[in-house]
Amino acid sequence: MPPRHLFLLVLLLPVANAAQAQQSTNRNVNVRAELARSEITIGDQIYLDVNISAPPGTKVVPLDPAILNAMPGVEVIRDEELRTVAENPELLLEQRLLITSFDTGYVTIQPLPIYYEDAMGLRDTAYTTDFLLTVRGAVVSAEDDILPIKPIIEEPRNLLDYWWVLAVVGLVLVGLGYREYRRRATKPAPAAPPPPPAHVRALTALDELEAKRLWQTGRTDAYYVELTRILRTYLEARFDLPALEMTTRQITQALGNRSELNREQREELSELLQLSDLVKFAKATPAEDLHPRGLQRVRDFVRETTRAEVVSTEKVD
Fold it and tell me: Residue 30: helix, strand or coil by DSSP?
């Protein structure tokens, strides 16, 4: 555990002792833990995800793996760092732990404490709910199931028995292939056509997304996942930054000083990405009229930045 996390944990120990007898009454911080599945075979490894939502400015201490290791039947294989998913309008955090169990039966994962300090400096604790993990034993054949020895089965003839025929055919094919290679080597291969510009690919993808009618058929999450992917792919190609691997905050900061974007365009981009984060990670449900408006806003953003790209290219020429 990093020293700063250990320091915060020591400061929050008095709060943790008081919270053992009573759950936190703070409704602003919510935590949820869930397993990838509820049943495993003994020794199998499974991910335990801890999701935290809190007001901006809240300082959260990562979950200590020792808490899980202290529970009967649970062993932590690997713990990952506490990751920030979104910061506005709500702080969304996620921590993933890889666990296993070598005890068969039902393993109870007790409520996990999450220590935090709000923006006013007040320390408190939020708890997950408890849940069960079913651990089943490996299937082993009984000794009385041993079958008698079977007689020797002669191997049938196969193509390898005629290896000399295969060798002759192989040599002929190699000779024909070499002759064809020499014949084609004299002809230069045609140059591959250049890929379509970034704005053309983005506008085509937006038209295809609109034709799928995802949100009209109740698949709102899939609609915003695809919309965000199109926008991030365009930003990556247009502004030469790894937008597909960056968070919303990192993208906003990276484009904050770009002269190609004005203040209104930067704010529009930030709102689009934050809305998609809320739908994907916080399971928010935007108003129905925001769905087509979001697609049109991305389409307008692509067209506006495309004009700036054309002007920049003409100046270089």
Answer: strand
